[in-house]
User: Which sequence fits this backbone?
């Protein structure tokens, strides 16, 4: 029944889709974590115990992937042979890059503001809004098999997720 | 991962950071980005009437190697003709900065940026 040559969706028992029912994911995860818990295999042979550990780590990677909107999108593309995580292509829509530059410049100026928190919050809201729109576009395009458009959305998500990391880093710095 | 001394030097004292007016007819702007790591780079050149790059500015949001690559290339292109600048190869940058294989893409970004800036300038002039 357990087969780690399956993809994460099939392994966990959810449809292969960008839209994931997070409560169903949580339920299935709990069940599988119980079934696959290495303690249940303690009485079995070394080989079977090793298998159990392998299943568990596959499951945990699968759960993390299906939970994260970015990892999930990257994974769905990778199932179709598209790798957006290590490609060195730099062909990105110049208007989008211009906007990314401006957002980063705004972030850079925040520490000098009298009220940095208000602007930081505004920036965070704006960036999250852009991410949400990209996720919706991706869901639709992936479903419609418009893979090159879907890939473009994921590349944009990667730039924005990086910015979110930078925003959070500044938040920590201001709080510290 | 250890950065070479040259990378650290450019990272700590980046040359030619700044922005030019991209509406200026003599300014060419190259915007490039690396989706895999989320780095964004803007490289601008100011070109004289006889086709020589008089000045170059950059702004890079990215890792030390990306900043160093763009800083170095702005130094190199000053005084070059557009043709010479467009022929610069990332391998020369990578070699000068002693970039490790995992950071070669940062030098590719800088090469793409100067090519994009030259192309932008030429397109402006052809209008």
Assistant:
């Amino acid at each position: 029944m357990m087969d780690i040559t399956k993809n994460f969706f099939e392994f966990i028992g959810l449809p292969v889709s960008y839209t994931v029912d997070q409560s169903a994911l949580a339920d299935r995860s709990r069940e599988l974590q119980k079934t696959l818990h290495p303690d249940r295999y303690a009485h079995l042979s070394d080989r079977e115990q090793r298998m159990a550990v392998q299943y568990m780590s596959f499951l945990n990677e699968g759960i993390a992937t299906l939970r994260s909107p970015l990892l999930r999108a990257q994974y769905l593309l990778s199932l179709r042979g598209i790798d957006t995580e290590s490609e060195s292509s730099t062909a990105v829509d110049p208007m989008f890059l211009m906007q990314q530059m401006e957002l980063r410049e705004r972030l850079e100026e925040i520490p000098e503001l009298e009220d940095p928190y208000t602007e930081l919050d505004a920036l965070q809201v704006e960036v999250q809004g852009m991410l949400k729109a990209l996720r919706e576009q991706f869901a639709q395009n992936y479903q419609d098999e418009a893979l090159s458009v879907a890939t473009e959305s994921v590349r944009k998500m990667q730039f924005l997720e990086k910015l979110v990391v930078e925003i959070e880093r500044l938040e920590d710095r201001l709080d510290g | 991962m250890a950065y070479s001394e040259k990378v650290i030097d450019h990272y700590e004292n980046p040359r030619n950071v700044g922005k030019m007016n991209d509406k200026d007819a003599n300014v060419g702007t190259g915007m490039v980005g690396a989706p895999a790591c989320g780095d964004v780079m803007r490289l601008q050149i100011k070109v004289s009437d006889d086709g020589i790059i008089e000045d170059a500015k950059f702004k890079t949001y990215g890792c030390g190697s990306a900043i160093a690559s763009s800083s170095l290339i702005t130094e190199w292109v000053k005084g070059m003709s557009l043709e010479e600048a467009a022929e610069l190869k990332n391998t020369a940058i990578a070699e000068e900065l002693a970039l490790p294989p995992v950071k070669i893409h940062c030098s590719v970004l800088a090469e793409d940026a100067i090519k994009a800036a030259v192309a932008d300038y030429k397109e402006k002039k052809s209008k």
Q: What stands out?
A: Chain B touches chain A at residues 31-40, 42, 59, 61, 105, 108-109, 112 (CB under 8 Å). Strands of chain B lie at 27-34, 39-47, 53-61.
